[in-house]
Amino acid sequence: MALMFLTETVRAYRERDPAARSDLEVLLCYPGLHAVALHSLSSFLWRHRMPLVGRVVSHIARFLTGIEIHPGAKLGRRLVIDHGMGVVIGETAEIGDDVYIYHQVTLGGTSSKAGKRHPTVGDNVIIGAGAKVLGAISIGEGARIGANAVVVAEVPAGTTVVGIPARPVDRSGKARFDAYGTPADPCLDPLLQEVDLLRRELTELEGRIAKLAQERIF
Length: 218
Ligand SMILES: CC(C)(COP(=O)(O)OP(=O)(O)OC[C@H]1O[C@@H](n2cnc3c(N)ncnc32)[C@H](O)[C@@H]1OP(=O)(O)O)[C@@H](O)C(=O)NCCC(=O)NCCS
What we know:
Layout: H1 2-16, H2 23-29, H3 31-47, H4 51-65, E1 68-69, E2 80-81, E3 88-89, E4 94-95, E5 100-101, E6 106-108, E7 120-121, E8 126-127, E9 132-134, E10 138-139, E11 144-145, E12 150-151, E13 160-162, E14 167-168, H5 190-217
Parallel strand pairs: 1-3, 2-5, 3-6, 4-7, 5-8, 6-9, 7-10, 8-11, 9-12, 11-13
Antiparallel strand pairs: 13-14
């Protein structure tokens, strides 16, 4: 069991991180792997009526890796946590198989009430660096969450979301999503308004010059 976990997880790191050059390098130098391995232990203790010992193991894992995974969280297979520092995965979070999480990601709660309050992440989801996924929401299979996004609502399967609050990237080209907080309507952009004004003045001046030239000729 442990051997299968190590083999397939190390392979997942090798396949997905071009910086990983050997199995030994992944085994020794990838804190995400260490954190998930230690989570297997803390989760076992948690489920077998030793919650305090489970919490202590997860605390030691956090100390060693910078990754905080509550023992109650349910993790799928081949989870890759790249870089890892600052990752927080809450007690009632559930993560599917083949999920890829970068550093500084939070799968957090928005309520102090007990019960399901953390996200459920589907298979094959990618969560970019610094993203915060908050509440008992579902992230559909194959979704991608942009770096630094704050996700507070369900994300349908296969959708890419970015920004704060996170919204789907619009690939239609008609109504483009405003990814960087600049106005989507160019008429509201003061710089574009200024350019538009200058363009109109230029057109008017060109008209007047053409008229003067005509008067001189005739
Ligand atoms: C969200 C992401 C998956 C989208 O990738 P993609 O499908 O190739 O999308 P594109 O690069 O074509 O971008 C689509 C639009 O979203 C914008 N966008 C992309 N990522 C964004 C982000 N994190 N925040 C805000 N806007 C973003 C782009 O500027 C573009 O906007 P436009 O249509 O107005 O030009 C990717 O940008 C991302 O953030 N990946 C995380 C990577 C990461 O964390 N790496 C850490 C390595 S250490």
